[in-house]
Amino acid sequence: MKKAVVLLSGGLDSATCLAIARSQGYACYCLSVNYGQKQKVELEAADRVASALGAAEHKTVVVDLGSIGGSALTDDIDVPKDRSDGEMEEGIPITYVPARNTIMLSVALGYAEVLGADAIYVGVNAVDYSGYPDCRPEFVEAFQTLANKATKVGVEGDTISIEAPLIHMTKPEIIEKGLSLGVDYAATHSCYDPDSLGQACGHCDACLIRKKAFEDLGKFDPVLEHLAP
What is the pLDDT of residue 89? Predict the structure, then answer.
Protein backbone atom coordinates (compact mmCIF):
# COMPACT_ATOMS: atom_id res chain seq x y z
CA MET A 1 0.00 0.00 0.00
CA LYS A 2 1.39 3.41 -0.91
CA LYS A 3 2.34 5.66 1.99
CA ALA A 4 1.82 9.34 2.70
CA VAL A 5 2.99 11.59 5.50
CA VAL A 6 0.14 13.85 6.60
CA LEU A 7 0.92 16.99 8.59
CA LEU A 8 -1.75 16.98 11.29
CA SER A 9 -2.32 19.98 13.54
CA GLY A 10 -5.65 18.79 14.88
CA GLY A 11 -7.49 21.58 13.08
CA LEU A 12 -10.31 21.53 10.56
CA ASP A 13 -8.10 21.75 7.48
CA SER A 14 -5.55 19.11 8.44
CA ALA A 15 -8.30 16.69 9.51
CA THR A 16 -9.94 17.08 6.10
CA CYS A 17 -6.57 16.66 4.42
CA LEU A 18 -6.04 13.35 6.27
CA ALA A 19 -9.48 12.12 5.20
CA ILE A 20 -8.69 13.00 1.57
CA ALA A 21 -5.32 11.22 1.66
CA ARG A 22 -6.95 8.12 3.11
CA SER A 23 -9.71 8.23 0.48
CA GLN A 24 -7.03 8.30 -2.23
CA GLY A 25 -5.66 4.97 -1.09
CA TYR A 26 -2.74 6.00 1.11
CA ALA A 27 -1.62 4.46 4.36
CA CYS A 28 -1.39 7.68 6.35
CA TYR A 29 1.51 8.38 8.68
CA CYS A 30 0.48 11.48 10.60
CA LEU A 31 3.03 13.96 11.86
CA SER A 32 2.24 16.63 14.43
CA VAL A 33 4.69 19.25 15.65
CA ASN A 34 4.96 20.60 19.16
CA TYR A 35 6.52 23.87 18.04
CA GLY A 36 6.25 25.74 21.32
CA GLN A 37 2.66 26.83 20.86
CA LYS A 38 1.18 28.24 24.06
CA GLN A 39 -1.87 26.00 23.86
CA LYS A 40 -1.25 22.26 23.57
CA VAL A 41 -4.93 21.34 23.22
CA GLU A 42 -4.47 21.16 19.44
CA LEU A 43 -2.01 18.29 19.90
CA GLU A 44 -4.65 16.41 21.89
CA ALA A 45 -7.08 17.06 19.02
CA ALA A 46 -4.53 15.67 16.57
CA ASP A 47 -4.42 12.44 18.57
CA ARG A 48 -8.21 12.17 18.42
CA VAL A 49 -8.37 12.89 14.70
CA ALA A 50 -5.58 10.45 13.79
CA SER A 51 -7.28 7.68 15.74
CA ALA A 52 -10.76 8.41 14.39
CA LEU A 53 -9.58 8.54 10.77
CA GLY A 54 -7.52 5.37 10.89
CA ALA A 55 -3.95 6.66 10.62
CA ALA A 56 -1.37 3.92 10.24
CA GLU A 57 0.80 5.80 12.70
CA HIS A 58 0.84 9.14 14.48
CA LYS A 59 3.89 10.76 15.99
CA THR A 60 4.63 14.16 17.46
CA VAL A 61 8.04 15.78 17.15
CA VAL A 62 9.35 18.78 19.07
CA VAL A 63 10.77 21.84 17.31
CA ASP A 64 10.91 24.76 19.72
CA LEU A 65 9.90 27.82 17.75
CA GLY A 66 8.78 29.38 21.02
CA SER A 67 12.43 30.03 21.77
CA ILE A 68 12.54 32.59 18.95
CA GLY A 69 9.02 33.97 19.53
CA GLY A 70 7.60 36.55 17.16
CA SER A 71 4.03 35.23 17.11
CA ALA A 72 0.96 35.52 19.31
CA LEU A 73 0.82 31.72 19.23
CA THR A 74 4.26 31.27 20.79
CA ASP A 75 5.08 34.54 22.55
CA ASP A 76 3.59 36.80 25.21
CA ILE A 77 1.49 38.67 22.66
CA ASP A 78 -2.29 39.04 22.72
CA VAL A 79 -4.29 37.11 20.13
CA PRO A 80 -6.46 39.52 18.08
CA LYS A 81 -10.20 39.13 18.68
CA ASP A 82 -13.44 40.04 16.89
CA ARG A 83 -11.76 41.36 13.77
CA SER A 84 -13.90 42.14 10.73
CA ASP A 85 -13.42 40.40 7.39
CA GLY A 86 -11.73 43.55 6.11
CA GLU A 87 -9.33 43.63 9.03
CA MET A 88 -8.46 39.97 8.57
CA GLU A 89 -7.67 40.60 4.91
CA GLU A 90 -5.16 43.38 5.68
CA GLY A 91 -1.53 42.36 6.01
CA ILE A 92 0.00 39.42 7.82
CA PRO A 93 -1.46 38.92 11.30
CA ILE A 94 0.53 38.53 14.51
CA THR A 95 -0.68 34.90 14.72
CA TYR A 96 1.66 34.06 11.83
CA VAL A 97 4.46 31.85 13.16
CA PRO A 98 7.68 32.69 11.26
CA ALA A 99 8.77 29.85 8.96
CA ARG A 100 6.41 27.33 10.63
CA ASN A 101 5.19 25.59 7.49
CA THR A 102 8.67 25.54 5.99
CA ILE A 103 10.02 23.83 9.08
CA MET A 104 7.11 21.41 9.41
CA LEU A 105 7.33 20.39 5.77
CA SER A 106 11.08 19.91 6.11
CA VAL A 107 10.56 17.53 9.03
CA ALA A 108 7.81 15.76 7.08
CA LEU A 109 10.18 15.45 4.11
CA GLY A 110 12.76 13.68 6.25
CA TYR A 111 10.09 11.38 7.68
CA ALA A 112 8.81 10.61 4.18
CA GLU A 113 12.32 9.60 3.09
CA VAL A 114 12.67 7.26 6.05
CA LEU A 115 9.27 5.69 5.36
CA GLY A 116 9.74 5.47 1.61
CA ALA A 117 6.55 7.51 1.28
CA ASP A 118 5.25 8.70 -2.07
CA ALA A 119 3.64 11.93 -0.88
CA ILE A 120 3.32 14.53 1.83
CA TYR A 121 -0.14 16.00 2.46
CA VAL A 122 -0.45 19.47 3.94
CA GLY A 123 -3.70 21.32 4.63
CA VAL A 124 -2.68 24.81 3.53
CA ASN A 125 -5.39 26.95 1.97
CA ALA A 126 -5.06 30.11 -0.12
CA VAL A 127 -8.73 31.16 -0.19
CA ASP A 128 -10.21 31.40 3.32
CA TYR A 129 -7.01 31.93 5.25
CA SER A 130 -5.51 34.59 7.50
CA GLY A 131 -2.92 36.09 5.16
CA TYR A 132 -0.07 33.70 5.92
CA PRO A 133 2.63 33.73 3.22
CA ASP A 134 3.31 30.00 3.66
CA CYS A 135 -0.24 29.02 2.71
CA ARG A 136 0.01 30.17 -0.92
CA PRO A 137 0.38 28.03 -4.08
CA GLU A 138 3.74 29.74 -4.76
CA PHE A 139 5.05 28.42 -1.46
CA VAL A 140 3.91 24.84 -2.15
CA GLU A 141 5.44 24.93 -5.63
CA ALA A 142 8.71 26.29 -4.24
CA PHE A 143 8.85 23.57 -1.59
CA GLN A 144 8.23 20.91 -4.23
CA THR A 145 11.26 22.22 -6.11
CA LEU A 146 13.29 22.07 -2.91
CA ALA A 147 12.10 18.51 -2.19
CA ASN A 148 13.21 17.42 -5.65
CA LYS A 149 16.67 18.90 -5.11
CA ALA A 150 17.26 18.11 -1.45
CA THR A 151 16.45 14.39 -1.17
CA LYS A 152 18.10 11.13 -2.12
CA VAL A 153 14.88 10.18 -3.89
CA GLY A 154 14.97 13.37 -5.95
CA VAL A 155 18.60 12.97 -6.92
CA GLU A 156 17.88 9.42 -8.06
CA GLY A 157 15.16 10.66 -10.42
CA ASP A 158 11.99 10.05 -8.43
CA THR A 159 9.98 12.48 -6.33
CA ILE A 160 8.08 12.86 -3.08
CA SER A 161 4.97 14.73 -4.14
CA ILE A 162 3.84 17.69 -2.02
CA GLU A 163 0.04 17.48 -2.04
CA ALA A 164 -2.08 20.45 -0.97
CA PRO A 165 -5.61 19.34 -1.90
CA LEU A 166 -7.33 22.23 -0.09
CA ILE A 167 -5.25 24.99 -1.64
CA HIS A 168 -7.99 26.41 -3.90
CA MET A 169 -11.06 25.41 -1.85
CA THR A 170 -13.24 27.73 0.20
CA LYS A 171 -13.77 26.88 3.85
CA PRO A 172 -17.38 25.74 3.25
CA GLU A 173 -16.15 23.50 0.42
CA ILE A 174 -13.53 22.03 2.75
CA ILE A 175 -16.15 21.29 5.39
CA GLU A 176 -18.50 19.71 2.86
CA LYS A 177 -15.67 17.51 1.57
CA GLY A 178 -14.72 16.45 5.06
CA LEU A 179 -18.28 15.63 6.05
CA SER A 180 -18.64 13.47 2.94
CA LEU A 181 -15.53 11.56 4.06
CA GLY A 182 -16.68 11.07 7.63
CA VAL A 183 -14.74 13.77 9.45
CA ASP A 184 -16.13 14.57 12.90
CA TYR A 185 -15.33 18.25 13.24
CA ALA A 186 -16.28 18.18 16.93
CA ALA A 187 -12.98 16.33 17.47
CA THR A 188 -10.93 19.10 15.85
CA HIS A 189 -9.46 22.26 17.36
CA SER A 190 -8.60 25.47 15.51
CA CYS A 191 -8.86 28.19 18.16
CA TYR A 192 -5.85 30.43 18.78
CA ASP A 193 -6.82 31.28 22.36
CA PRO A 194 -8.84 28.52 24.07
CA ASP A 195 -10.09 28.84 27.64
CA SER A 196 -8.75 26.90 30.63
CA LEU A 197 -10.88 23.90 29.63
CA GLY A 198 -9.47 23.88 26.12
CA GLN A 199 -12.70 25.19 24.60
CA ALA A 200 -12.70 27.50 21.57
CA CYS A 201 -12.96 31.21 22.36
CA GLY A 202 -15.28 31.98 19.44
CA HIS A 203 -13.64 35.37 18.83
CA CYS A 204 -10.17 34.84 17.29
CA ASP A 205 -9.65 34.82 13.51
CA ALA A 206 -9.62 31.02 13.33
CA CYS A 207 -12.88 30.70 15.26
CA LEU A 208 -14.60 33.41 13.21
CA ILE A 209 -13.56 31.89 9.89
CA ARG A 210 -14.81 28.45 10.97
CA LYS A 211 -18.05 29.84 12.39
CA LYS A 212 -18.90 31.72 9.20
CA ALA A 213 -18.10 28.69 7.02
CA PHE A 214 -20.46 26.45 8.98
CA GLU A 215 -23.13 29.16 8.93
CA ASP A 216 -22.78 29.44 5.14
CA LEU A 217 -23.69 25.74 5.02
CA GLY A 218 -26.65 26.25 7.33
CA LYS A 219 -24.83 24.50 10.17
CA PHE A 220 -23.37 25.36 13.56
CA ASP A 221 -19.71 24.76 14.31
CA PRO A 222 -19.77 21.89 16.83
CA VAL A 223 -16.73 23.18 18.73
CA LEU A 224 -18.71 26.32 19.63
CA GLU A 225 -21.68 24.53 21.22
CA HIS A 226 -20.63 25.79 24.65
CA LEU A 227 -21.19 29.35 23.36
CA ALA A 228 -24.61 28.69 21.84
CA PRO A 229 -27.38 30.92 23.21
Answer: 84
